[in-house]
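Reply to dn_fold:

You asked what the input looked like. This is it:
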Amino acid sequence: MIGNRIVYWIAQFTGWMLYALILLLYNAITGKGTYVELVASIILIVFTGILFTHAYRYVIIRYGWLNLPIHKAVLVLFLSSITLGIVCPLVHGILSDLLVPNIRSFFSMSVNEQFDLFFNWVVLTFVWSILYFTTHYFANYKKAEITNLKMLASQNEIELINLKSQLNPHFIFNALNSIRALVDEDPLLAKTAITQLSSMLRGSLQTGRRQLITLDEELSLVKSYLAIEKIRFEERLKVVYNIDPQSLNFNIPPLMIQTLVENAVKHGISSLTKGGELHVETHLNDGVLEIVVRNSGTLQTKKSASTGIGLINTEKRLSLLYGKEAGITIRQGDQEVISSILIPKNLIYENIDN
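and this is what came back:
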């Protein structure tokens, strides 16, 4: 990548050579010709311009004028342009008299011509100042924007870690509660459930360090959890999967479907005497993944504290990762509760393994 200093010098020479070309064309059009003395005088203009604008740049950096508020920067820019507009033609006139004596210099001009020359130099240096200040303000703005984005990303990362740290104990607590209910009823089944929980925890530890996991990995955790609940509820719990095969490699935040499934079992099916059905579905529509969890029961308008943690965290994690493009909804259907999550195909978060 080209350094800032090289870019500056390229811009300096390009700008002043363009101005020299404009002067040559103007003199050619007005019939003044482009004879040797005139070319030499224009070269002196370019030399004087580069010399003093570079010195001006040193002063700007030395005294930190680029960090001034806009109103003060405009005042400094205006006064500096007037100063340069006075000094540059005087220096150019001295150099012309010494090096190109055959062409009219500043000191041989009338007062009106001298004033016009002053004015031209003021405008020229004012334009240079505007370009220089504007370029740096834009560059600083971009740097600040990148810094802010990095800070926001860092804050989001910390918040996501905190949210996941809340979800993991919540997830384990619900599984242990299910096993505890089996200990007195059927110790053998309780042992089987503990084995299932061990498998769940192993999978949770493997995926818990990552920002995103594949939907296939998430479903493995969900199936392990539901296997425990199946032991507990026996025939009262019927699980149906309807998974789009193309969605299995889609990246999603870990424990997201798990949260919806836990909520469906704990606050839906467990409260029904005859139990019910739990459906886990995924659909892909134009690159947008829809995850749907449907369970028999009635939507509870007043959520418990444990339910709130899971669903609120799910909503926050979606917002942090995908912004407003993702979302979660829970509604009452025909004798069932329908929870759905929409996740866009966000390339930024594809194939991330933290």
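Strands lie at 213-214, 237-242, 251-252, 276-285, 288-296, 327-332, 336-343.
Hope that clears it up.
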